[in-house]
């Protein structure tokens, strides 16, 4: 999928439509310090796996690959950042979409 490198977009800082430079955000890994991993960390702590004592039998229920809704998707949702050319502030994505390959032209 091809997208333009520069486009007009509303800047919340300038409060008007200005030219923005589009960039793709680097995907972050999930680790103990990453805030988005909090939900699964709490879940594993409740299971008892986080601190290393037992799991109350919850992880002995067969492989995830045998579940009916399992399997990796063929594409990722792209995370675009818009940097205002006037005030240099960066705003987030307008709308997420799936694409196997994204090219900024």
Characterize the structure shown.
With 105 residues, the protein is mainly β. The chain has a single domain (2-51, 77-104), classed as Roll (Nuclear Transport Factor 2, Chain: A). The chain has one helix and eight strands; from the N terminus they run βββαβββββ. It has a four-stranded antiparallel β-sheet with strand order 2-3-5-6, with no helix packed on it. A two-stranded parallel sheet has the order 1-8. A hairpin with a 4-residue loop joins strand 2 and strand 3. The mean pLDDT is 79.
Q: Which key terms come to mind for this protein?
A:
105 residues, mainly beta, Nuclear Transport Factor 2, Chain: A, two-stranded parallel sheet
- What average pLDDT do the residues reach? 79
Structural category is mainly beta
The separation of the N and C termini measures 10 Å
How many helices does DSSP assign?
1
Outline: elongated
Proportion in helices? under 10%
Radius of gyration: 20 Å
Might you state the CATH topology name? Nuclear Transport Factor 2, Chain: A
Q: Domains counted in the coordinates: how many?
A: 1
């Amino acid at each position: 999928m091809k997208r333009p490198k520069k486009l007009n977009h509303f800047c919340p800082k300038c409060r008007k439509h200005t030219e923005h430079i589009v960039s793709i955000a680097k995907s972050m890994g999930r680790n103990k310090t990453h805030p988005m991993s909090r939900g699964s960390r709490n879940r594993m702590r409740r299971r008892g796996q986080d601190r290393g004592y037992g799991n109350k039998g919850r992880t002995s229920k067969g492989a995830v690959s045998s579940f009916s809704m399992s399997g990796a998707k063929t594409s990722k949702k792209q995370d675009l950042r818009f940097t205002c050319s006037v005030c240099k502030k960066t705003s987030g994505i307008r709308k997420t979409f799936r694409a196997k390959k994204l090219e900024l032209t």
